[in-house]
Amino acid sequence: MTKVVALLTTIDDIFDAYATLQELELFTEAINRVGYGQRKSASQIHEAMLSGSSRSLQRNGGDVNYRKIILGPTSKRSSRMKKSVQVYMVEAKWLHGKYIPTIEEYMDVTRVSIVVPMFTIFSFMAMGEMANKEVFDSLRQDPKIVRASSNIIRLMDDLASHKFEQERGHIASSIECYMKHHGVSEQQTYDEFHQQIEKAWKDINEEFLRPTTVPMLFLSRLLNFARSGDVMYKDHKDIFTHLGEVMENNISMLLIDPVPI
User: Fold this and answer.
1) Which of 15, 62, 122, 160 has the CA that lies 20 to 30 A from 114?
2) Which band of pLDDT confidence, cut at 50, 70 and 90, is reported for residue 205?
3) Helix (H, G, I), strand (E, B) or coil at 210
4) CB neighbours of 240 closer than 8 A, spacing ≥ 6?
5) Do the Cβ atoms of 158 and 91 come closer than 8 Å?
6) The pLDDT value given to residue 103
7) Residue scoring higher pLDDT (63 or 88)
8) Burial 219-228 (b: 16+ CB within 10 A, else e)
9) In sequence order, what are the residues at sequence separation of 6 or more whose Cβ sits closer than 8 angstroms to the Cβ of residue 57?
10) Structure pTM?
11) Count of Cβ atoms closer than 10 Å to residue 58 Cβ
12) How far does Cα 68 stand from its chain's mean position?
């Protein structure tokens, strides 16, 4: 899972700050051409990125066909990896065209680019045989808990990072989109988004309280994604981008000095 996060973070950074629009169009075209059994169409860089993530998951997951899931079996249904790259491209075109979308347009795209749906699939796959067909079928229905987790991370991320990102050149965040199309102040937008975040937490609680075909252990993974957003972007501070004492201590307690269980 760590390698998947690192891979997608690298791709996100390429689209945000390290490539021209023409280069990104070529990159996206190459990724879109890549199909199950057709990876020769990609450049060596794309090949290494895709095959590396596939090999890593295969080593950890045994016989599960991760390669097929990552690359997509047919052109009729884009894989999650391809979908992530496609929405990164949409964002890049917004930036280069100086386009400010409506808040609805923005959220439809950035719920995908925050990659909670993709991380969900990879985390479920790592759970082995417990992740049966019914579990993955439920994800195809775009369940409320996935949307809620995505909304929490997306809005908290924007609240914490939009000023810094606008200074260096970035697409309009949800803050700018909402202010422009609703004619409200920055503080009014903050207040509205805090209410939306609170509602998203209530949606997650609701999903835990009602009967579901998805085992509680899987729902807990989605809850933990939302919790990670709260850790990284709490109090309008982006400690994912700007590492500090809090994040360093979190990493140390998790990996260097863990509490014995």
Assistant:
1) 62
2) very high
3) coil
4) 157, 232, 233, 247
5) no
6) 94
7) 88
8) bebbbebbeb
9) 4, 64, 66, 70, 122, 125, 126
10) 0.79
11) 14
12) 20
CA distance linking residue 254 with residue 228, whole number of Å: 13
pLDDT reading at 148 higher than 60: yes
Residue 252 neighbours by CB distance under 10 Å? 11
pLDDT, tens digit (0-9, with 9 covering 90-100), for 59-87 = 544 444 444 444 444 333 346 778 888 89
Show the tokens assigned to 213. Answer: 């075909």
87: which DSSP letter? H
The whole-angstrom separation of Cα 122 and Cα 30 is 22
Q: Are 72 and 36 contacting, i.e. CB atoms less than 8 angstroms apart?
A: yes
Short-list 44, 19, 46, 21, CA closest to 31: 46
Distance CA 176, CA 86 (A): 22
The residue count for the chain: 261
Q: Does 50 or 240 have the greater pLDDT score?
A: 240
What is the model's pLDDT at position 5?
79
Measure CA 194 to chain center.
20
